[in-house]
Amino acid sequence: MDPRGGVTQIELEYMVHDEDAEPIALPFPLLEKLADYFSDELIIGRGGFAVVYKAVLDNGVLAVKRLFNTHMHEEQFQGEVECLMKVKHKNIVRFLGYCANTQENISDYKGKMVMADVQQRLLCFEYLPKGSLDGYITDSPGELNWRKRYDMIKGICEGLHYLHQNNILHMDLTPGNILLDEDMMPKMTDFGLSTCFEKDQTGVITKNVAGTRGYLAPECYNKEIILRHKFDLYSLVL
Hints:
Its EC number is 2.7.11.1. By secondary structure, the protein is α+β, with helices and mostly antiparallel strands. 24% of the residues lie in helices and 29% in strands.
């Protein structure tokens, strides 16, 4: 541990190579440094609520997801961490840790210098070098022959079955949210819109369903629905 508190870079490198390591709280200064202070040159992905950076260690690489407008999306951050802490499967991107940092900075507000809370919310994952599935979907086999395509479909189904067995709905299953490792094994990511059921629940009533148009089940456009496993299956078969 860092004498000032928090995980050191050496400990984080150990976690990257230890498949059994559990996700933990990570210090903001460490993640900021590894992402080269969030350099645009290290951006490897963007979403509706976050930017993903490639972070280089002395002995490994990881991905750091930095949420923006965190004051508006605190509930999503907490929900994503809750879901990620519960899952460990070969077809789900491995979650290494999270950072919830808040500090006071002096800034100009309408001509006055005031103290304001600055929130940093970050998630840390294994780095997958082949990018997302949407970059490989074509009409011709190309790099993905039919056997490889079958294996990928099977892997996605197994990962989704695992989530449902653990009472988790992904709710944004798209090719862009399926990443590929060096062997082209598919791994689901982006649990920002996911829902975790209680143990005995079979559905959750909601009036607000977000997701990617074209992958949302038609029922999701109603004013009030009951979220069920079948909504992920609708996205899967598209």
